[in-house]
Each structure stands twice: as C-alpha cells, then as structure tokens.
Amino acid sequence: QVQLVESGGGLVQAGGSLRLSCVAFGRIFSRYTMGWFRQAPGKEREFVAAISAGAFDTYYADSVKGRFTISRDNVKNMGYLQMNRLKPEDTAVYYCASGPGANVVAALAYDYWGQGTQVTVSS
Fold first, then answer.
1. Residues 6 or more apart whose Cβ sits within 8 Å of residue 56
2. Rounded CA separation 80/45 (Å)
3. What is the DSSP letter of 40?
4. 29 in helix, strand or coil?
5. Residue 101: which of 38, 47, 42 has the closest Cα?
6. CB 64 within 8 A of CB 49
C-alpha cells in the first residue's frame, strides 16, 4: 500500500520560513515525479512545485518562484519544500503527490497523495 505523509506545517509570520517534508511508503519513490500542491479555503487545489524522478528538473508556479525550493532525497524516500519569504496568500493546506508526472502541473498526473499539512501565514 502506497502512503505519503507530510509534516512541517504550522503558523508563521509574514516574511518567515517553513520547511515541509513528505515521506513515501510502499513505492520505489525514485521512479516517480514528486509534486506539491496547495488548497486555500474556497479555492481549487493549485500547483506549487514539482521535481523529476532523478531530481534533474524542477518546476514552480509563478507565485512561488524565487521563494520556494523543492528537493528530494531518493535514498530516504523523502521530498521537501523549503518556503521562504512567506506571504499571507501562501496560507493553505499543502499536499505532496507522487506519480508518473507527464504533465507535472496537473493534479491528474499524480496517483498518490498525502493527507495535507496546514500552513498559516499571519500578516
């Protein structure tokens, strides 16, 4: 059974930083693209960042480019999202996802999802 578990969310002031982690169980993590998505109250889930299976390619939404960094450790089956210079509009539940990733910005490209971790940025 494949399971993804996120951690690292919390409450932070605007301008602060958080590092989200995602651990994968039950699949050869290194074979799949990993993505981060977020969903704010009343809004649709949106793409944040993705990293290819071998970590050679990274992709970012324009809204987080230059502030967030995605990375992965395939030996540990871990993925990370370093979030710097956080803004109140970054407040959302953040989800990690794993999948074949033909179109990394699309949720349909991922077949397994974590339960989400809440990130709240106060102004």
1. none
2. 19
3. -
4. helix
5. 47
6. yes
Checking if the pLDDT of 101 tops 80, the result is: no
Q: What count of residues does the chain have?
A: 123
* Other CB atoms within 10 A of residue 104 CB: 21
- If we measure between CA atoms, which residue out of 15, 95, 92, 19 comes closest to residue 50? 95
Tokens encoding 57 = 């390619």
Distance CA 123, CA 50 (A): 27
CA distance 123 to 120: 10
The CA distance from 79 to 96, in Å, is 8
Task: Tell me the one-letter amino acid at 85.
Answer: R
User: Using only C-alpha atoms, what is the Rg of the chain?
Assistant: 13
CA distances in angstroms from 97 to 12, 13, 70, 88, listed in the order given: 24, 26, 13, 23
Which one, of 52, 54, 56, 80, lies nearest residue 68 by Cα?
80
The letter for the amino acid at 10 is G
Q: What is the pLDDT of residues 33-79, one digit of tens each?
A: 999 999 999 999 999 999 999 999 999 999 999 999 999 999 999 99
